Amino acid sequence: MEAAHNGPVADTAVPGTVTVDLAVESPERMRDLGRRIAGVLAPGDLVMLTGELGAGKTTLTRGLGEGLGVRGAVTSPTFVIARVHPSLGDGPALVHVDAYRLGGGLDEMEDLDLDVSLPESVVVVEWGDGKVEELSDDRLQVLIHRAVGDTDDERRTVTLVGIGARWAGLDTDLAGA
Fold it and tell me: What is the 3-class SS of 11-74, one letter each residue?
């Protein structure tokens, strides 16, 4: 069971949070959503992705990479833990982390130097709940829900939770992206 990794920790009752719910019908639409989100990202942003295996976390991150204009194919960093995709232009690099196999909190992740990378990069962490929140008071949590069991349903419900002042206009910003 993956229950330890799946629970959304975003508390939408906390002041300073903005929540946006979206329906995504296909992997192509998930990549499109990633490109739209990339349009509102800036250096220093922390994005945390939560969802079951196969929910679309890496597909969304591919769209983020396309939208940010970074070098290299965005693939799951499960076996390398982290990949850095430098910008092909003036934008920030994308640091893509898969914390699935990391059991501890931020202490175990210190070797990745995410705190050093964060100010000039966009850091995206899959399975980061309970592990990287200390990196930034302001963060975007992306919760991806899909039908489970024996199904070929590609529909997903995506909940974006912007935590902190940085994300105050998230719903408006996404509409314009």
Answer: CCCCCCEEEEEEEECCHHHHHHHHHHHHCCCCCCCEEEEEECCCCCHHHHHHHHHHHHCECCCC
Query: Among all chains, which residue has been given the structure tokens 């992206």?
Result: 177
pLDDT in tens, the chain (177 residues): 233 334 444 444 556 789 999 999 999 999 999 999 999 999 999 999 999 988 999 999 999 999 999 999 898 876 667 888 999 999 999 999 888 766 655 555 555 556 667 688 999 999 888 878 888 889 999 999 987 766 778 899 999 999 999 999 898 888 776
Pairing status of strand 121-126 against strand 93-98: parallel
Nearest-CA neighbor of 76 among 36, 115, 49?
A: 49
Closest CA to 20 of 177, 163, 158: 158
DSSP assignment, residue 1? -
